[in-house]
Design brief:
Blueprint lengths: L2 H22 L2 H11 L9 H8 L3 H13 L3 E6 L2 E6 L5 H26 L1
Antiparallel strand pairs: 1-2
Helix pairs in contact: 1-4, 1-5
């Protein structure tokens, strides 16, 4: 694969990752994700529990949970009138891994070799 082909692939990776990058780029959402990661993925947490652990207001937590859900990073399970939020183990975060691996491969192919030649 030539340089332009790899750049085009990385451009596609960025496009595929836009929602995820926007969702996890926010510090508040990062703290919510850390709280959710600290729990059992099968059980999840309710908004009130996340509110207690993050010291955010309920409306703020609800808003950020919606952004994370829309990006496919978390899922919600209903139990009667209760909603439980948990990390999506088959998440769109895998797209980030692809992006990083493609960038790493590109750097190794086209930049690390230049440094060796210059050194």
């Amino acid at each position: 694969m030539n340089k332009q082909d790899q750049l085009n692939m990385i451009k596609e990776d960025f496009i595929n990752c836009q929602k995820v990058l926007l969702a996890i780029g926010d510090e508040t959402r990062q703290s919510i994700l850390l709280v959710l990661m600290g729990t059992d993925c099968q059980t999840g947490l309710r908004v009130g529990e996340i509110t207690e652990k993050t010291h955010l207001s309920r409306p703020a937590v609800s808003h950020h949970l919606k952004v994370l859900r829309d990006a496919g990073i978390i899922l919600m399970r209903k139990e009667g009138t209760k909603n439980f939020y948990y990390i999506n183990v088959r998440t769109e975060l895998g797209l980030l891994k692809t992006l990083v691996l493609d960038i790493d491969k590109f750097m190794q192919n086209f930049y690390l070799n230049d440094e060796i030649l210059e050194g």
